Amino acid sequence: MTSEYGLSNWAGAHPNIVAVSEPGTVPGPGHKPVLRAIATLDARTDGQSDGDSYAHVRYDDAPVRGGNRPSPSLTEALSELTGTSGSLHGYLDSTMTRPAALGDDLFVVPVFGKTYRSANLGQEFSFALVDDRGVLRGRLGGLHLREDSPFTGFDFTVVADPYRARAFHLNRYGLYAWSADGVLRSRMPTAEKPFKPLVHFALLECTPAGELLLAHRKQHLLLRVPVPQDLDDLAVAVEAALKGYGRERTALKKQYAPVSWLWSDSAATVNPL
User: Fold this and answer.
1) What pTM was computed for the model?
2) What is the four-CA torsion angle of 236, 181, 150, 42, rounded to 10 degrees?
3) Using a CB cutoff of 8 Å and minimum separation of 24, what contacts does 89-97 make?
4) Tens digits of residue pLDDT in 146-173
5) How far is CA 17 from CA 3, 23, 125, 138, in A?
6) Which of 42, 83, 189, 192 is deepest in the core (most CB within 10 A)?
7) Which pLDDT does position 121 carry in this prediction?
């Protein structure tokens, strides 16, 4: 995900481009590999100038700027898919967050509608399925605009396991898991007792081993949840991991005696860069 200047009425840079790098390229200090743009969130670029582009972000062998960009935009495609064109609760002035790779040729792009100062519950959002040519293939399904809304707490993160073609999302209402075709395979509501502790965690990533990596928002501890081969068994695995978290936390408290959930270890070694 890269940002652009000069978009519509936005001030400053705004996340707007989904791009992929060529196989084998590695970004690093002083080196920016060429990124091939595959999708645009907002194509309203009348306010862009010659300086509002990056040489390494390209489309059709030229820097992305003005009309030189993938089309149609995700805003247009999602508005058509959901039938919300022209609606105050549609995708005009929407925002996207970090895409997640379901494979070499399929990505999940979280897109959420314009936020207001008043309540945003019920506002449009989509976890869009976009292929490596920028075509909208659908979205992760099974979510209710209000009962599963990520606007409560602004938890829009989606993580994916490209080795097993799975996607996951955690918000204040539950933990969700999908297969690569966008079908919701598992939902663990935080309203149910075994999964209530999930409201205290943020979903960080899915590890190469296929584990979900969660971080406690206040206690500064990480929880690894092994994901079973059959996603129908995920709820059992999550329940067991949450129970184990309490036991492990108690043991760590006895060992480190944290103050305000800040953990110190005087024996830890710091390796210089």
Assistant:
1) 0.91
2) 160
3) 89/113, 89/122, 89/123, 89/124, 90/124, 91/124, 91/126, 93/8, 93/42, 94/41, 94/42, 94/124, 95/14, 95/15, 95/41, 96/1, 96/15, 96/16, 96/18, 96/41, 97/1, 97/15, 97/156, 97/157
4) 999 999 888 999 999 999 999 999 999 9
5) 6, 19, 18, 18
6) 42
7) 72
User: Quick one: pLDDT at residue 238?
Assistant: 98
pLDDT at residue 196 in the model: 97
Q: Write out the chain in H/E/C secondary structure.
A: CEEECCCCCCCCCEEEEEEEECCCCCCECCECCCEEEEEECCCCCCCCCCCCCCCCEEECCEECECCECCCCCHHHHHHHHHCCCCCCCCCCCCEECCCEECCCCEEEEEEECCCCCCCCCCCCEEEEEEECCCCEEEECCCCCCCCCCCCCCCCCCEEEECCCCEEEEEECCEEEEEECCCCEEEEEECCCHHHHHHHHEEEEEECCCCEEEEEECCCCCEEEEECCCCHHHHHHHHHHHHHHHHHHHHHHHHHHCCECCECCCCCCCCCCC
Closest CA to 41 of 123, 136, 105: 136
For the segment 166-183, what is each residue's pLDDT rounded down to a tens digit?
Answer: 999 999 999 999 999 999
